[in-house]
Protein backbone atom coordinates (compact mmCIF):
# COMPACT_ATOMS: atom_id res chain seq x y z
CA UNK A 1 0.00 0.00 0.00
CA UNK A 2 2.99 2.27 0.44
CA UNK A 3 3.25 2.58 -3.36
CA UNK A 4 -0.17 4.26 -3.58
CA UNK A 5 0.00 8.06 -3.18
CA UNK A 6 -1.76 9.46 -0.13
CA UNK A 7 -4.10 11.56 -2.25
CA UNK A 8 -5.18 8.45 -4.18
CA UNK A 9 -5.90 6.65 -0.90
CA UNK A 10 -7.97 9.60 0.23
CA UNK A 11 -9.87 9.51 -3.05
CA UNK A 12 -10.59 5.80 -2.58
CA UNK A 13 -11.67 6.42 1.02
CA UNK A 14 -14.12 9.13 -0.11
CA UNK A 15 -15.50 6.80 -2.78
CA UNK A 16 -15.97 4.01 -0.22
CA UNK A 17 -17.70 6.44 2.13
CA UNK A 18 -20.04 7.52 -0.66
CA UNK A 19 -20.85 3.87 -1.40
CA UNK A 20 -21.66 3.23 2.27
CA UNK A 21 -24.00 6.21 2.31
CA UNK A 22 -25.80 4.74 -0.71
CA UNK A 23 -26.30 1.48 1.18
CA UNK A 24 -27.48 3.06 4.45
CA UNK A 25 -31.22 3.15 3.55
CA UNK A 26 -31.24 -0.65 3.07
CA UNK A 27 -33.00 -1.31 6.38
CA UNK A 28 -35.92 0.90 5.40
CA UNK A 29 -36.26 -0.46 1.86
CA UNK A 30 -39.19 -2.69 0.98
CA UNK A 31 -37.97 -5.11 -1.65
CA UNK A 32 -37.74 -8.77 -2.55
CA UNK A 33 -34.69 -9.97 -0.66
CA UNK A 34 -34.99 -13.25 -2.51
CA UNK A 35 -34.39 -11.37 -5.78
CA UNK A 36 -31.46 -9.52 -4.19
CA UNK A 37 -29.91 -12.80 -3.06
CA UNK A 38 -30.43 -14.49 -6.44
CA UNK A 39 -28.96 -11.60 -8.41
CA UNK A 40 -26.02 -11.24 -6.01
CA UNK A 41 -25.31 -14.97 -6.27
CA UNK A 42 -25.59 -14.84 -10.06
CA UNK A 43 -23.22 -11.88 -10.32
CA UNK A 44 -20.72 -13.52 -7.96
CA UNK A 45 -20.85 -16.66 -10.09
CA UNK A 46 -20.20 -14.63 -13.25
CA UNK A 47 -17.20 -12.93 -11.63
CA UNK A 48 -15.76 -16.25 -10.46
CA UNK A 49 -16.20 -17.75 -13.94
CA UNK A 50 -14.55 -14.69 -15.48
CA UNK A 51 -11.56 -15.05 -13.16
CA UNK A 52 -11.26 -18.78 -13.75
CA UNK A 53 -11.46 -18.58 -17.53
CA UNK A 54 -9.60 -15.26 -17.68
CA UNK A 55 -12.35 -13.38 -19.47
CA UNK A 56 -11.67 -9.71 -20.26
CA UNK A 57 -13.62 -7.01 -18.42
CA UNK A 58 -16.58 -7.07 -16.04
CA UNK A 59 -19.98 -8.63 -16.70
CA UNK A 60 -22.49 -5.79 -16.22
CA UNK A 61 -25.88 -7.24 -17.39
CA UNK A 62 -26.72 -8.68 -13.95
CA UNK A 63 -25.88 -5.39 -12.20
CA UNK A 64 -27.95 -3.37 -14.65
CA UNK A 65 -30.83 -5.84 -14.38
CA UNK A 66 -30.70 -5.25 -10.62
CA UNK A 67 -30.85 -1.48 -11.23
CA UNK A 68 -33.96 -2.01 -13.38
CA UNK A 69 -35.66 -4.40 -10.92
CA UNK A 70 -34.81 -3.24 -7.41
CA UNK A 71 -34.77 -0.07 -5.33
CA UNK A 72 -31.40 1.70 -5.72
CA UNK A 73 -29.86 0.68 -2.35
CA UNK A 74 -30.86 -2.97 -2.86
CA UNK A 75 -29.58 -2.92 -6.43
CA UNK A 76 -26.25 -1.49 -5.27
CA UNK A 77 -25.93 -4.30 -2.71
CA UNK A 78 -25.97 -6.90 -5.52
CA UNK A 79 -22.46 -5.92 -6.60
CA UNK A 80 -20.79 -6.37 -3.21
CA UNK A 81 -20.44 -10.17 -2.79
CA UNK A 82 -19.10 -10.72 -6.29
CA UNK A 83 -16.49 -7.97 -6.03
CA UNK A 84 -15.40 -8.70 -2.47
CA UNK A 85 -14.92 -12.39 -3.27
CA UNK A 86 -13.25 -11.82 -6.62
CA UNK A 87 -9.57 -12.46 -7.22
CA UNK A 88 -7.23 -9.47 -7.32
CA UNK A 89 -3.77 -10.12 -8.78
CA UNK A 90 -2.14 -6.73 -8.24
CA UNK A 91 -1.20 -5.22 -4.93
CA UNK A 92 -2.43 -3.61 -2.75
CA UNK A 93 -5.24 -6.16 -3.04
CA UNK A 94 -7.46 -4.89 -0.23
CA UNK A 95 -7.35 -1.33 -1.48
CA UNK A 96 -8.06 -2.38 -5.08
CA UNK A 97 -10.94 -4.61 -4.02
CA UNK A 98 -12.45 -1.84 -1.89
CA UNK A 99 -12.09 0.62 -4.75
CA UNK A 100 -13.80 -1.65 -7.27
CA UNK A 101 -16.63 -2.49 -4.87
CA UNK A 102 -17.27 1.17 -4.06
CA UNK A 103 -17.13 2.15 -7.72
CA UNK A 104 -19.72 -0.44 -8.75
CA UNK A 105 -21.97 0.32 -5.78
CA UNK A 106 -22.03 4.00 -6.73
CA UNK A 107 -22.55 3.23 -10.43
CA UNK A 108 -25.46 0.85 -9.82
CA UNK A 109 -27.04 3.15 -7.23
CA UNK A 110 -26.98 6.14 -9.60
CA UNK A 111 -28.31 4.00 -12.45
CA UNK A 112 -31.12 2.76 -10.22
CA UNK A 113 -32.03 6.28 -9.09
CA UNK A 114 -32.16 7.55 -12.67
CA UNK A 115 -34.24 4.57 -13.80
CA UNK A 116 -36.76 4.82 -10.98
CA UNK A 117 -37.10 8.61 -11.21
CA UNK A 118 -38.05 8.28 -14.90
CA UNK A 119 -40.73 5.67 -14.20
CA UNK A 120 -38.66 2.78 -15.47
CA UNK A 121 -39.90 0.32 -12.84
CA UNK A 122 -43.50 0.57 -14.03
CA UNK A 123 -42.40 0.25 -17.66
CA UNK A 124 -40.46 -2.94 -16.86
CA UNK A 125 -43.35 -4.47 -14.91
CA UNK A 126 -45.79 -3.67 -17.72
CA UNK A 127 -43.30 -4.63 -20.47
CA UNK A 128 -44.12 -1.26 -21.98
CA UNK A 129 -41.96 -1.04 -25.11
CA UNK A 130 -40.53 1.12 -26.55
CA UNK A 131 -41.12 3.46 -23.57
CA UNK A 132 -39.09 1.18 -21.30
CA UNK A 133 -36.01 1.94 -23.42
CA UNK A 134 -35.98 5.63 -22.42
CA UNK A 135 -35.41 5.25 -18.65
CA UNK A 136 -33.20 2.22 -19.25
CA UNK A 137 -31.04 4.16 -21.71
CA UNK A 138 -30.71 7.07 -19.31
CA UNK A 139 -29.74 4.67 -16.52
CA UNK A 140 -27.08 3.02 -18.68
CA UNK A 141 -25.61 6.41 -19.61
CA UNK A 142 -25.53 7.41 -15.95
CA UNK A 143 -23.88 4.11 -15.00
CA UNK A 144 -21.19 4.53 -17.64
CA UNK A 145 -20.64 8.17 -16.71
CA UNK A 146 -20.12 7.36 -13.02
CA UNK A 147 -17.65 4.55 -13.75
CA UNK A 148 -15.59 6.58 -16.21
CA UNK A 149 -15.63 9.70 -14.01
CA UNK A 150 -14.30 7.70 -11.06
CA UNK A 151 -11.75 5.91 -13.27
CA UNK A 152 -10.45 9.23 -14.58
CA UNK A 153 -10.04 10.54 -11.07
CA UNK A 154 -8.04 7.55 -9.87
CA UNK A 155 -5.84 7.70 -12.97
CA UNK A 156 -5.04 11.34 -12.32
CA UNK A 157 -4.22 10.72 -8.65
CA UNK A 158 -2.69 7.24 -8.53
CA UNK A 159 -0.89 7.17 -11.89
CA UNK A 160 -0.15 10.93 -11.96
CA UNK A 161 -1.71 11.26 -15.40
CA UNK A 162 -2.28 14.96 -16.32
CA UNK A 163 -5.84 15.98 -15.46
CA UNK A 164 -6.63 16.97 -19.06
CA UNK A 165 -5.67 13.49 -20.25
CA UNK A 166 -7.09 11.45 -17.38
CA UNK A 167 -10.68 11.44 -18.66
CA UNK A 168 -9.98 11.88 -22.37
CA UNK A 169 -11.81 9.24 -24.39
CA UNK A 170 -12.77 7.09 -21.38
CA UNK A 171 -16.52 7.61 -21.70
CA UNK A 172 -16.61 7.17 -25.48
CA UNK A 173 -14.56 3.94 -25.36
CA UNK A 174 -16.68 2.49 -22.56
CA UNK A 175 -20.12 3.46 -23.84
CA UNK A 176 -20.65 0.86 -26.60
CA UNK A 177 -19.99 -2.28 -24.50
CA UNK A 178 -21.96 -0.87 -21.55
CA UNK A 179 -24.94 -0.14 -23.81
CA UNK A 180 -24.88 -3.75 -25.07
CA UNK A 181 -24.76 -4.99 -21.49
CA UNK A 182 -27.57 -2.59 -20.63
CA UNK A 183 -29.84 -4.04 -23.32
CA UNK A 184 -29.16 -7.54 -21.99
CA UNK A 185 -29.88 -6.31 -18.47
CA UNK A 186 -33.20 -4.81 -19.60
CA UNK A 187 -34.17 -8.08 -21.28
CA UNK A 188 -33.32 -9.92 -18.06
CA UNK A 189 -35.43 -7.52 -16.01
CA UNK A 190 -38.46 -7.78 -18.31
CA UNK A 191 -38.32 -11.58 -18.36
CA UNK A 192 -37.79 -11.65 -14.59
CA UNK A 193 -41.07 -9.77 -14.15
CA UNK A 194 -42.86 -11.92 -16.72
CA UNK A 195 -44.93 -15.00 -15.83
CA UNK A 196 -41.91 -17.16 -16.65
CA UNK A 197 -39.84 -15.65 -13.82
CA UNK A 198 -36.10 -15.69 -13.09
CA UNK A 199 -35.41 -18.91 -15.03
CA UNK A 200 -36.39 -17.23 -18.29
CA UNK A 201 -34.23 -14.23 -17.38
CA UNK A 202 -31.21 -16.49 -17.05
CA UNK A 203 -31.57 -17.53 -20.69
CA UNK A 204 -30.48 -14.02 -21.69
CA UNK A 205 -27.08 -14.68 -20.16
CA UNK A 206 -26.29 -17.61 -22.45
CA UNK A 207 -25.78 -15.63 -25.69
CA UNK A 208 -24.11 -12.86 -23.67
CA UNK A 209 -21.62 -15.34 -22.20
CA UNK A 210 -20.89 -16.72 -25.67
CA UNK A 211 -20.29 -13.24 -27.09
CA UNK A 212 -18.17 -12.38 -24.05
CA UNK A 213 -16.06 -15.47 -24.62
CA UNK A 214 -15.65 -14.61 -28.31
CA UNK A 215 -14.62 -11.06 -27.44
CA UNK A 216 -12.12 -12.37 -24.89
CA UNK A 217 -10.61 -14.72 -27.45
CA UNK A 218 -10.30 -11.83 -29.90
CA UNK A 219 -8.69 -9.71 -27.17
CA UNK A 220 -6.16 -12.45 -26.41
CA UNK A 221 -5.38 -12.99 -30.08
CA UNK A 222 -4.88 -9.28 -30.62
CA UNK A 223 -2.60 -9.09 -27.58
CA UNK A 224 -0.56 -11.98 -28.99
CA UNK A 225 -0.31 -10.18 -32.33
CA UNK A 226 0.93 -7.02 -30.64
CA UNK A 227 3.46 -9.00 -28.59
CA UNK A 228 4.80 -10.70 -31.73
CA UNK A 229 5.24 -7.40 -33.54
CA UNK A 230 6.73 -5.70 -30.49
CA UNK A 231 9.32 -8.46 -30.08
CA UNK A 232 10.39 -8.24 -33.73
CA UNK A 233 10.65 -4.44 -33.64
CA UNK A 234 12.65 -4.47 -30.41
CA UNK A 235 15.09 -6.90 -31.97
CA UNK A 236 15.59 -4.55 -34.95
CA UNK A 237 16.00 -1.53 -32.65
CA UNK A 238 18.67 -3.32 -30.61
CA UNK A 239 20.57 -4.32 -33.75
CA UNK A 240 20.36 -0.93 -35.51
CA UNK A 241 20.61 1.63 -32.71
CA UNK A 242 20.79 4.61 -35.07
CA UNK A 243 17.26 4.01 -36.37
CA UNK A 244 15.69 3.29 -32.98
CA UNK A 245 12.06 4.40 -33.02
CA UNK A 246 12.06 4.53 -36.84
CA UNK A 247 9.66 1.59 -37.16
CA UNK A 248 7.03 3.14 -34.87
CA UNK A 249 7.23 6.45 -36.71
CA UNK A 250 6.89 4.81 -40.11
CA UNK A 251 3.85 2.96 -38.78
CA UNK A 252 2.39 6.26 -37.58
CA UNK A 253 3.01 8.01 -40.91
CA UNK A 254 1.54 5.01 -42.79
CA UNK A 255 -1.63 5.31 -40.70
CA UNK A 256 -1.88 9.02 -41.56
CA UNK A 257 -1.60 8.27 -45.28
CA UNK A 258 -4.10 5.40 -45.12
CA UNK A 259 -6.68 7.48 -43.28
CA UNK A 260 -6.23 10.37 -45.69
CA UNK A 261 -6.93 7.95 -48.55
CA UNK A 262 -10.17 6.88 -46.85
CA UNK A 263 -9.19 3.29 -46.10
CA UNK A 264 -11.34 1.39 -43.60
CA UNK A 265 -10.13 0.77 -40.05
CA UNK A 266 -9.07 -2.81 -40.76
CA UNK A 267 -6.78 -1.76 -43.62
CA UNK A 268 -5.44 1.14 -41.58
CA UNK A 269 -4.41 -1.32 -38.88
CA UNK A 270 -2.73 -3.56 -41.46
CA UNK A 271 -0.84 -0.53 -42.84
CA UNK A 272 0.29 0.27 -39.32
CA UNK A 273 1.69 -3.26 -39.00
CA UNK A 274 3.35 -2.86 -42.40
CA UNK A 275 5.06 0.35 -41.38
CA UNK A 276 6.22 -1.05 -38.07
CA UNK A 277 7.62 -4.25 -39.60
CA UNK A 278 8.99 -2.92 -42.90
CA UNK A 279 12.64 -3.15 -41.78
CA UNK A 280 12.44 -6.43 -39.84
CA UNK A 281 14.69 -8.01 -42.48
CA UNK A 282 17.59 -5.98 -41.12
CA UNK A 283 17.94 -8.75 -38.56
CA UNK A 284 19.62 -10.70 -41.37
CA UNK A 285 22.06 -7.90 -42.27
CA UNK A 286 25.48 -7.71 -40.56
CA UNK A 287 25.43 -5.15 -37.76
CA UNK A 288 28.67 -3.54 -38.92
CA UNK A 289 26.97 -2.47 -42.17
CA UNK A 290 23.95 -1.00 -40.39
CA UNK A 291 26.16 1.04 -38.08
CA UNK A 292 28.77 2.08 -40.63
CA UNK A 293 29.46 5.83 -40.42
CA UNK A 294 30.75 6.27 -43.95
CA UNK A 295 29.29 5.61 -47.41
CA UNK A 296 28.57 2.01 -48.37
CA UNK A 297 30.52 0.21 -51.06
CA UNK A 298 28.52 -1.30 -53.95
CA UNK A 299 28.97 -4.77 -52.45
CA UNK A 300 27.83 -3.60 -49.01
CA UNK A 301 24.80 -1.90 -50.54
CA UNK A 302 23.84 -5.13 -52.29
CA UNK A 303 23.94 -6.93 -48.95
CA UNK A 304 21.72 -4.31 -47.30
CA UNK A 305 19.32 -4.43 -50.26
CA UNK A 306 18.56 -8.04 -49.36
CA UNK A 307 16.71 -6.96 -46.21
CA UNK A 308 13.23 -6.78 -47.82
CA UNK A 309 13.54 -10.43 -48.89
CA UNK A 310 14.85 -11.45 -45.48
CA UNK A 311 11.94 -9.63 -43.88
CA UNK A 312 9.37 -11.26 -46.15
CA UNK A 313 10.74 -14.69 -45.30
CA UNK A 314 10.44 -13.87 -41.60
CA UNK A 315 6.82 -12.65 -41.69
CA UNK A 316 5.20 -14.61 -44.53
CA UNK A 317 3.95 -17.27 -42.14
CA UNK A 318 2.20 -14.72 -39.88
CA UNK A 319 -1.33 -14.88 -41.24
CA UNK A 320 -2.83 -11.85 -39.50
CA UNK A 321 -0.45 -9.46 -41.30
CA UNK A 322 -2.30 -9.83 -44.63
CA UNK A 323 -1.10 -7.34 -47.24
CA UNK A 324 1.48 -5.98 -44.80
CA UNK A 325 3.73 -8.84 -45.92
CA UNK A 326 3.79 -7.45 -49.46
CA UNK A 327 4.76 -4.04 -48.06
CA UNK A 328 7.71 -5.60 -46.22
CA UNK A 329 8.93 -7.14 -49.48
CA UNK A 330 8.32 -4.24 -51.87
CA UNK A 331 8.70 -0.99 -49.88
CA UNK A 332 11.94 -0.17 -51.74
CA UNK A 333 10.48 -0.58 -55.24
CA UNK A 334 10.25 2.63 -57.32
CA UNK A 335 7.57 3.67 -59.77
CA UNK A 336 10.13 3.99 -62.57
CA UNK A 337 11.34 0.41 -62.04
CA UNK A 338 14.76 1.29 -60.62
CA UNK A 339 14.00 0.02 -57.11
CA UNK A 340 14.65 -3.33 -55.47
CA UNK A 341 14.38 -6.27 -54.95
CA UNK A 342 12.47 -7.01 -58.21
CA UNK A 343 12.40 -3.71 -60.12
CA UNK A 344 8.59 -3.52 -60.23
CA UNK A 345 6.98 -0.56 -62.00
CA UNK A 346 3.91 1.58 -61.31
CA UNK A 347 0.79 -0.41 -60.42
CA UNK A 348 2.84 -3.62 -60.23
CA UNK A 349 3.93 -2.38 -56.81
CA UNK A 350 1.32 -3.29 -54.15
CA UNK A 351 -0.56 -0.31 -52.75
CA UNK A 352 0.54 -1.11 -49.20
CA UNK A 353 4.20 -0.96 -50.31
CA UNK A 354 3.65 2.42 -52.00
CA UNK A 355 2.21 3.78 -48.74
CA UNK A 356 5.09 2.49 -46.63
CA UNK A 357 7.69 3.70 -49.15
CA UNK A 358 6.55 7.30 -48.67
CA UNK A 359 6.26 6.96 -44.90
CA UNK A 360 9.71 5.34 -44.71
CA UNK A 361 11.41 8.00 -46.82
CA UNK A 362 9.70 10.81 -44.91
CA UNK A 363 10.90 9.56 -41.53
CA UNK A 364 14.36 8.73 -42.87
CA UNK A 365 14.76 12.33 -44.04
CA UNK A 366 13.35 13.91 -40.86
CA UNK A 367 15.49 11.76 -38.53
CA UNK A 368 19.14 12.07 -37.66
CA UNK A 369 21.10 9.07 -38.93
CA UNK A 370 24.71 8.06 -38.45
CA UNK A 371 25.52 9.38 -41.93
CA UNK A 372 23.54 12.68 -42.01
CA UNK A 373 21.49 15.11 -39.97
CA UNK A 374 17.71 15.39 -39.96
CA UNK A 375 15.97 17.65 -42.47
CA UNK A 376 13.05 19.90 -41.47
CA UNK A 377 9.59 18.53 -42.28
CA UNK A 378 8.86 21.11 -45.04
CA UNK A 379 12.17 20.29 -46.75
CA UNK A 380 11.43 16.57 -46.58
CA UNK A 381 7.97 17.09 -48.08
CA UNK A 382 9.44 19.15 -50.92
CA UNK A 383 11.85 16.33 -51.66
CA UNK A 384 9.03 13.77 -51.67
CA UNK A 385 7.03 15.94 -54.08
CA UNK A 386 10.08 16.35 -56.31
CA UNK A 387 10.48 12.56 -56.49
CA UNK A 388 6.73 11.86 -56.91
CA UNK A 389 6.00 10.05 -60.16
CA UNK A 390 9.50 8.62 -60.47
CA UNK A 391 10.28 7.15 -57.07
CA UNK A 392 7.00 7.58 -55.15
CA UNK A 393 3.30 7.29 -55.89
CA UNK A 394 1.98 10.89 -56.18
CA UNK A 395 -1.28 9.89 -54.44
CA UNK A 396 0.59 8.73 -51.37
CA UNK A 397 2.79 11.81 -51.28
CA UNK A 398 -0.23 14.09 -51.64
CA UNK A 399 -2.07 12.21 -48.88
CA UNK A 400 0.86 12.63 -46.48
CA UNK A 401 1.20 16.34 -47.31
CA UNK A 402 -2.51 16.92 -46.67
CA UNK A 403 -2.50 14.89 -43.44
CA UNK A 404 0.51 16.78 -42.09
CA UNK A 405 -0.99 20.13 -43.08
CA UNK A 406 -4.07 19.33 -41.03
CA UNK A 407 -2.59 17.46 -38.04
CA UNK A 408 1.13 18.25 -37.99
CA UNK A 409 3.83 15.70 -37.22
CA UNK A 410 3.84 14.56 -33.60
CA UNK A 411 5.56 11.17 -33.56
CA UNK A 412 5.19 8.99 -30.46
CA UNK A 413 8.96 8.37 -30.59
CA UNK A 414 10.73 11.49 -31.79
CA UNK A 415 13.87 11.76 -33.87
CA UNK A 416 15.42 13.84 -31.09
CA UNK A 417 15.51 10.73 -28.88
CA UNK A 418 18.09 9.18 -31.20
CA UNK A 419 21.83 9.79 -30.83
CA UNK A 420 22.94 12.87 -32.75
CA UNK A 421 26.27 12.23 -34.42
CA UNK A 422 28.22 14.41 -36.83
CA UNK A 423 27.40 13.39 -40.39
CA UNK A 424 30.27 13.01 -42.87
CA UNK A 425 29.43 15.10 -45.92
CA UNK A 426 30.40 12.30 -48.28
CA UNK A 427 27.90 9.97 -46.68
CA UNK A 428 24.82 12.05 -47.41
CA UNK A 429 22.68 10.33 -50.05
CA UNK A 430 20.57 12.21 -52.58
CA UNK A 431 17.93 9.48 -52.62
CA UNK A 432 15.28 9.83 -49.89
CA UNK A 433 15.44 6.86 -47.56
CA UNK A 434 18.26 5.28 -49.54
CA UNK A 435 19.38 3.19 -46.60
CA UNK A 436 15.81 2.28 -45.59
Automatic annotation (TrEMBL):
Keywords: Membrane, Transmembrane, Transmembrane helix. SMART domains: HDc (SM00471). InterPro entries: Cyclic_di-GMP/3'3'-cGAMP_PDE, HD/PDEase_dom, HD_domain, HD_GYP_dom, HDIG_dom. The chain crosses the membrane at residues 58-80, 101-118, 130-150, 170-192, 198-215. Residues 243-365 form the HD domain. Gene3D superfamilies: Hypothetical protein af1432 (1.10.3210.10). Pfam families: HD_5. Residues 415-436 are annotated as: Disordered. Residues 221-416 form the HD-GYP domain. This is HD-GYP domain-containing protein. It comes from Streptomyces longisporus.
